[in-house]
Amino acid sequence: MDIVRIYKLHEILNGRRVPISKADILEKMECSESTFKRIRKNMQDNLSAQIDYLPEHNGYLYTNQNYELPGLWFGTDELLALVSLEKLLSGLNVSVLNTHLMPFKTRIDKLLKNQSIKAENLHRMRILPINARINKPDQFQQISAAVVLRKCLDISYHARGSNEISQRTISPQRLLHYRDNWYLDAWCHLKSQLRTFAVDRIQRLQNSQTPCIDIADDILDAHFKSGYGIFSGEAKYKATLIFSANRARWVADEAWHPDQKFTWLSDGRYQLEVPYADERELIMDVMRHLPEVEVVSPASLKNLLVQHLEQSIKKHQ
After folding, report:
1. What whole-number distance in Å separates Cα of residue 209 and Cα of residue 116?
2. What is the pTM of this model?
3. Domain 3-62 falls in which CATH fold?
4. What distance in Å separates the CA atoms of residue 141 and residue 97, rounded to the nearest whole number?
5. Which side of the chain, N or C, has fewer Cβ within a 10 Å radius?
6. pLDDT of 88-117, one tens digit each?
7. Which residue, among 205, 206, 207, 202, has the nearest Cα to 157 in the 3D structure?
């Protein structure tokens, strides 16, 4: 769909009470007669524009008075890309997003119908959230607003690891969707440190009009991207893992860490090196590849894996 020329033709015809000749249209649009015909047909077929030729005046005119271009219109490829985006957003397990997207989805369905694309076939595009935890819609909206408006939040937070509830004031920095769950990177005023909070563990929150502390992007990147997975902090360790030749066909296409290094061994095995600060998420990822992975180093990570395996065997004997 030639968006620029459609706007140009609309600009020429909009508000006119007297028809304009084809010659004048071609001159103003700087296009050929065939292009004009194509644009006119496109607008009539897809945008409900009535551009009629009036032979008694030897010219063209909008016959649907006060016609305006629709606020949202796209070509087929663009529409399908928007459908993919809508499906992605709908699959993020946030009901408030789905509510706001409904008018958008309704409009897209109408446009798809105009282009003879069956909306009922769109269910074939699916996004399946795995292990997604339940969020409170109102709280999610408050948190996302605080991130954008740069305001502090007073929260009551339940930490799963310690099973403790604490009261904190935080300065939101980034809202993160990671492995089908939402996390909030923030400056914690209680601990005077950068921390990551699981959104679903925020039990109560209250908006504050206090401007939040802004941390520079490079500092946030250095803190949150250095460690492995969701666990932040400076990466102090480096894990060396070796995957079997069979499992290497999968792992070689996975990104475990932005600074990972890999080596293909002569027998087809795959050696992966990843930095980490906290071993909890890393050990879980290693265990899902057993028995086709070996922890080479460090010894502390290898010993931790052995402990987990021994405890598991003991429970299952």
Report:
1. 50
2. 0.63
3. Arc Repressor Mutant, subunit A (1.10.10)
4. 9
5. C
6. 666 665 655 566 666 666 666 766 666 666
7. 202
